[in-house]
Design goal:
The complex is a heterodimer of chains A (about 800) and B (about 170).
Chain A lengths: L14 H5 L15 E7 L5 E7 L1 H4 L4 E6 H6 L31 E2 L5 E7 L2 H9 L2 E6 L6 H4 L15 E8 L1 H9 L3 E9 L11 E7 L4 E6 L4 H12 L7 E4 L15 H13 L3 E4 L2 H5 L8 E9 L5 E13 L26 E10 L13 H19 L3 H8 L8 E2 L5 E2 L4 H11 L5 H10 L3 E10 L7 H6 L8 E7 L5 E5 L8 H13 L6 E4 L17 H27 L7 E4 L2 E4 L5 E3 H9 L14 E6 L8 E10 L6 E11 L6 H20 L30 E5 L17 H18 L13 H11 L8
Parallel strand pairs in A: 1-12, 10-11, 14-15, 20-21, 27-28
Antiparallel strand pairs in A: 1-5, 2-4, 2-6, 3-5, 7-15, 8-13, 9-10, 9-12, 13-14, 16-17, 18-26, 19-20, 19-25, 22-23, 23-24, 26-27
Chain B lengths: L1 E7 L2 E7 L5 H8 L18 E4 L2 E4 L12 E3 L12 H8 L9 H14 L5 H7 L11 H19 L11
Parallel strand pairs in B: 1-5
Antiparallel strand pairs in B: 1-2, 3-4, 3-5
Helix pairs in contact in B: 2-5
The chains are: A alpha+beta (about 800), B alpha+beta (about 170).
């Protein structure tokens, strides 16, 4: 192992600037002569915009301009595109309504962009925005899934009858029906996967800067994927060719999916900057983020599981309604479909699966990928269903899982829904989690809690997820409008230090450290001699960015591939210097050695020679040591594992205390164990947030009731226990690093474990069903109802 | 316009501001101290915590003119030159930060905790940090860092001879 190489718990290289308060987030940047934009948003969920009178706003101090949808339309500004075309069962394409950055005639959710005021200062823009007179004619609105598909529901889009965007299916329906026909038992469940607000701590921000001298635009933005924004905004919205558009995503304060998507404000400030001849900055306030950042989850699902007499899973049938919001955000349509349903086999040997998903428009903020993106929904459904099956069949829930888990010697494993899992060991992670959670001695803890008048419960989930998006050919065949490969460039400098340009973007994941460790391992240089550059389309060859736990598996593999080229070229140079044949050289610990001799050249000497090629045979050896690579993954990667939660409930108040969380995960090969633990912790906290406190709620009129940190319950330090994290890894077999993914497993695996624990605690009191989040109020009501009492209506 | 004079990170500052300017706006926009962050508009998230007169304060809840004559310390004033404050060391050593956005407020809050309580329990750390939201770390390594810092600071305080356990009040 190289010092600071793969597997070492290296301290993060990027930390120093953050600790000193020297991070550079978008809102920290201020350009000379910069103006400030404030977006005027709809207070109504559904209304016709009858008129906009800007005269009073324009007369306010410092105001430079007021722009509306008509101004954008006059400049032929296009709509925000959706990145994934989904086809319905009948082959028809999804309904794809227009999505202009500023509305022209109708608003379709609270927070919809109506106009933008630009002024000398933010305070002036905001004050003037209050003077903008917008006349609305309100229309009926629909916010909730069941209401939206009910007959006579208000239509979000005339072109989408019944508010259905697509009616999609996956799997072998006939095989599933046949399996149900011979089933010994059928278990059924209906679940709500609660709507969430991602809430990265840094609110979104954007600065547009048009340079008339070069006729060139720069957009600074809080993005997880600057190249993707350049592609979407440049090609579809503002029609700026790539060479005239630079997108910079500097330090970004968390993303969790919500900063993947191309947002209206990015296009507005870029366009306005040219209009005004000045840089234009926009920064979201938090309450504004609640009504303009894409939300997550929001499914209603009914599922039925067929079992044989021994408890083997024969078939699964799933019907899901997925809320898409009022417009199609970038990955809105793939999240509840291809990112979710193919995983419904889970880690089990279920023979046949058939899933139907209806994407539904509502008068709400667009819904899109949020940490886990589709896989948490599939996992939650499956693991709640397995627990219910255990209760109904009387088979112990651990036994039932053991019976159905894919055996460790069955890999590669072809699932009934297109995926081939390359590697895994679900028994090992299950047994590890049971051991570390002291599962076997739980009943003693339950009894001890009962003696104190508390209800204690334990729950588990065994899961597998699919990440490392994605083989371009597969993505393309399923409707993706882009390829999902990635790119890297490795530049070795004359003195042997290295700069790596990566298409990934780090907004908390620690790429500047992890990627440097990969370089250190391969080239034998110190990690301190490696700089990782990300987040700037002018510097980096190309890249699709960071989401779907793809950074290491895809972008890291691109780096590995570029490093292979560096080593190959270095070997030729070393062979020349050593007057030997490249085939006779060994490269180890940072030195090229003629096999079986002590003649060697260090990597540093080779790098120097590459740039001081005094006697190179130029016809066969180019100077320089600078290589690029594109890597298109052969398959998804499939992390998996087992999560166990233990809760204690106060039956008087319904309060749920999360007593223990123990996880055993297979994340593939580990580059930096400290960073891996941190990623798991963070995912767990968000998954626990979904299970116990977070809930995004709209009222009947489409008003957002949970629109700030006062009303949307973010998990705080005192809400969480210390997590016990264990790993049992199997290497990915199809990427050069053997890595899988770690960023999302916490939010995928843990919600059902927590809910199964809550229901285990409540089972003795007769409670059999509960939807997330298990707040004290919901638990208290469930307990009252189980006792035949009714709680006071709220 | 109003003039406000205060000490920020041991340097005197005298600035003309609108009377409605918040302390956090003064720090970020007038003094260029962008290490103090704004993560919400309801005084919930704690990304803007600084010290005013030795107490942790959410800089979004205070008008700049209220800080007239006060001693303000921001995250930029935590280290001594190149030497990190023990809290910064601890956050680094324990991987107590990921995206870094909540980190300044989190550390400023934690430093104030240790002034009040140099030997807190894990539960006390978690309770104290109630006003600081982190979305990345699940808090585990933040809590670990604060406890490690407390330990380091107690050891440092006890280090110069004569080492005495009863020296703290």
């Amino acid at each position: 192992m190289t010092a600071g190489g793969i597997g070492e718990p290296l301290l993060r290289k990027e930390d120093r600037r953050f600790l000193l308060g020297k991070g550079r987030y978008t809102d920290d940047l201020n350009l000379p002569h910069q103006a400030h934009a404030y977006v005027v948003r709809s207070p109504h969920a559904s209304a016709r915009v009858a008129s906009i009178d800007a005269s009073r706003a324009l007369a306010m101090p410092g105001v430079l301009a007021v722009f509306t949808g008509a101004d954008l339309a006059a400049d032929q500004v296009g709509g925000l595109p959706c990145g994934w075309l989904i086809k319905s069962k009948d082959g028809s394409p999804m309904v794809e309504p227009p999505h202009p950055p500023l509305v022209t005639d109708r608003v379709r959710h609270v927070g919809d962009q109506v106009a933008v005021v630009v002024a000398e200062t933010h305070a002036q823009a905001k004050a003037a925005a209050r003077e903008l007179e917008v006349e609305y004619e309100t229309l009926p609105a629909v916010a909730r899934l069941r209401d939206a598909v009910a007959p006579g529901a208000p239509a979000v889009w005339a072109e989408a009858p019944g508010n259905v965007c697509f009616d999609w299916e996956l799997g072998d329906r006939a095989a599933v029906e046949a399996a149900f026909a011979r089933a010994h038992r059928v278990v059924e469940i209906e679940l709500v996967n609660n709507r969430l607000v991602p809430n990265a701590m840094e609110p979104r921000a954007a600065i547009g800067d048009y340079d008339a001298a070069d006729d060139r635009y720069t957009l600074y933005t809080t993005s997880q994927n600057p190249h993707l924004i350049r592609l979407l905004m440049g090609a579809f919205v503002l029609k700026i060719p790539e060479h005239k558009l630079r997108v910079v995503a500097p330090d970004v304060g968390g993303g969790f999916g919500s900063k993947i998507f191309h947002y209206a404000e990015e296009a507005i400030v870029t366009w306005a900057s040219r209009k005004l001849g000045r840089p234009v900055k926009w920064v979201a306030e938090r309450t504004e983020a609640f009504v303009s950042d894409a939300h997550g989850r929001d499914h209603v699902t009914r599922a039925r599981l067929a079992l044989d007499k021994d408890g083997h899973f024969l078939a699964l049938r799933v019907e899901t309604l997925a809320n898409l919001g009022a417009y199609l955000s970038t990955f809105a349509t793939v999240t509840p479909t291809y990112l979710s349903a193919p995983l419904l086999g889970g880690p089990y040997t279920t023979e046949a699966v058939y899933a139907e998903v209806k994407g539904v428009f509502t008068h709400t903020v667009p819904v899109d990928a949020y940490r886990g993106a589709g896989r948490p929904e599939a996992t939650y459904l499956l693991e709640r269903l397995v627990d219910k099956a255990a209760r109904e069949t009387g088979i112990d829930r651990v036994e039932l899982r053991r019976k159905n888990l894919i055996p460790s010697d069955a890999f590669p494993y072809q699932t009934p829904l297109a995926f081939t899992y390359d590697s895994g060991d679900y028994q090992a992670t299950l047994e590890l989690a049971l051991r570390e959670s002291e599962y076997a001695s739980f009943e003693a803890r339950r009894a001890e809690a009962a003696a104190r008048g508390k209800l204690r419960g334990i729950g588990l989930s065994t899961y597998v997820e699919a990440c490392g998006l994605a083989p371009s050919a597969v993505a393309g065949s399923l409707g993706c409008r882009a390829g999902l490969y990635d790119a890297a460039s490795v530049r070795v400098h004359p003195t042997g230090s290295v700069t790596v340009y990566t298409g990934a973007h780090s907004h908390g994941q620690g790429h500047e450290t992890t990627f440097a460790q990969i370089v250190a391992e391969r080239l034998g240089v110190a990690p301190e001699a490696v700089e990782i550059v990300h987040g700037d389309t002018d510097k980096i060859p190309f890249g699709m960015g960071t989401y779907g736990s793809r950074s290491l598996a895809v972008c890291g593999s691109a780096i590995a591939k570029a490093l292979d080229k560096i080593v190959a070229k270095s070997k030729k140079i070393a062979a020349h210097l050593l007057e030997s044949d490249p085939g006779d050289l060994e490269f180890e610990a940072g030195a090229f050695r003629v096999a079986g001799t002590d003649r060697q050249k260090s990597f540093g000497e080779v790098a120097f020679a590459a740039y001081v090629p005094h006697n190179f045979p130029h016809e066969s050896l180019e100077p320089g040591l600078d290589e690029s690579a594109f890597y298109d993954p052969k398959n998804f990667t499939f992390p998996g594992g087992c999560h166990v939660a233990e809760v204690e409930i106060d039956p008087e108040t319904g309060e749920v205390e999360l007593a223990r969380v123990t996880v055993a995960d297979d994340v593939g090969r580990v580059i930096n164990p400290v960073i891996v633990d941190g990623q798991i912790h963070g995912g767990l906290a968000q998954g626990i947030g979904q299970a116990l406190c977070e809930n995004c709620v709209y009222d009947d009129e489409g008003q957002l009731l949970s629109g700030s940190f006062m009303t949307y319950a973010m998990p705080r330090a005192a809400d969480l226990p210390n997590f016990k994290v264990g790993l049992h890894v199997t290497h990915c077999t199809h990427n050069p690093l053997g890595v899988k993914g770690v960023g999302e497993i916490g939010s995928i695996g843990v919600p059902p474990a927590v809910m199964n624990a809550v229901l285990d605690a409540l089972a003795p009191a007769g409670v059999t069903h509960l939807d997330m989040p298990a707040t004290s109020e919901r638990v208290w009501r469930a307990l009252r109802e189980a006792r035949g009492q009714k709680g006071p209506t709220p | 316009m109003a003039k406000v004079s205060l000490t920020v990170n041991r340097k005197l500052a005298s600035v003309d501001i609108e009377p409605s300017t918040l302390l956090v706006e003064l720090l970020r926009e007038k003094l260029g101290l962008t290490g103090t962050h704004v993560g919400c508009d309801t005084s919930q998230c704690g990304a803007c915590v600084v010290h005013v007169g030795g107490q942790s304060v959410k800089a979004c809840t205070m008008l700049a003119i209220e800080a007239e004559g006060a001693e303000v310390v921001t995250v930029e004033g935590l280290a001594e030159g190149e030497r990190l404050h023990p809290m910064q060391e601890a956050f680094r050593n324990e991987h107590g930060l990921q995206c870094g956005f909540c980190t300044p407020g989190m550390m400023m809050s934690a430093v104030d905790l240790l002034r009040h309580n140099p030997d807190p329990t894990e539960r006390e750390v978690r309770a104290w940090l109630e006003g600081n939201i982190c979305r990345c770390t699940g808090y585990q390594n933040i809590v670990k860092a604060v406890l490690a810092c407390a330990r380091a600071m107690r050891e440092r305080a006890a280090a110069p001879p004569p080492a005495s356990k009863g020296g703290r009040s």
